[in-house]
Write a sequence for this structure.
């Protein structure tokens, strides 16, 4: 018997760092970030994309990659004080954080500590950073020892690129795009297979996957929400012995799209 309950949990709305899907858009963004920083032309990068395209996941992938680890830190949100950021930087080098020093002295000390190894700071939801935080990041970038990669939604792109604190910084923006329709089938197959759900993976045809991708418009978070809801419906139907709804069909896919509001029943 297919375990739709397990399949459902695989698509909860959470960041899964143990699995990276090499979609065309993700690979372009990943390689461009690495190549740009390796070239040392820019110390400040903005990872731009709509909500749900995978910016947060990309930051986690980059942070854990051999290109940056162990000389990188990840701030999962913008609500941090400078002491928290500096504590992470000191801890990375095994140095104690001296609470009695001023921010300026800490910047000088950290610059000396990281002089031999460039450090990359990844920050998610960076459009929520305050003025003082932006000023601090700009100071770090100017020291040419620290590089910052900031995740920013499309609607905040201009605001961040034109932020007064970043005016004199050497900066660039990189777009994190949508999942192509033809790629979803491979994603489904590989993700379910790697979690030992091969029987469920084989339920999906390329046509089914393209239909789901069209409903979700290539947005990764929406795709995962769709699949979570689809497996919830399949699990319910299986438990209630509603056999006609335990196999994939256009009708079931449409029901899922209606359930999460992707189409209107009027």
């Amino acid at each position: 018997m297919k375990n739709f309950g397990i399949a459902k949990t695989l698509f909860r709305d959470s960041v899964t760092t143990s699995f990276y899907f090499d979609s065309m858009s993700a690979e372009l963004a990943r390689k461009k970030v690495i190549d740009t920083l390796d070239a040392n032309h820019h110390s400040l990068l903005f990872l731009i994309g709509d909500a749900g395209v995978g910016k947060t996941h990309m930051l986690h992938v980059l942070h854990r990659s051999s290109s940056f680890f162990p000389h990188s830190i990840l701030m999962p949100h913008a609500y941090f004080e400078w002491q928290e950021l500096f504590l992470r930087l000191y801890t990375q080098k095994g140095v104690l954080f001296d609470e009695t020093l001023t921010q300026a002295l800490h910047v000088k000390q950290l610059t000396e500590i990281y002089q031999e190894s460039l450090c990359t700071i990844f920050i998610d939801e960076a459009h929520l950073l305050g003025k003082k935080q932006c000023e601090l990041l700009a100071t770090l970038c100017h020291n040419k020892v620290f590089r910052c990669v900031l995740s920013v939604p499309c609607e905040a792109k201009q605001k961040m690129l034109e932020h007064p604190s970043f005016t004199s910084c050497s900066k660039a923006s990189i777009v994190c795009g949508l999942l192509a329709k033809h790629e979803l089938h491979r994603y489904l197959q590989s993700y379910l297979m790697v979690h030992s759900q091969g029987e469920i993976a084989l339920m999906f045809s390329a046509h089914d996957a393209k239909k789901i991708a069209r409903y979700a418009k290539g947005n990764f978070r929406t795709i995962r929400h769709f699949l979570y809801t689809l497996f919830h419906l399949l699990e319910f139907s299986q438990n209630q012995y509603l056999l006609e709804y335990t196999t994939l069909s256009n009708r079931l896919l449409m029901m899922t799209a209606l359930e999460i509001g992707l189409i209107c029943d009027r």
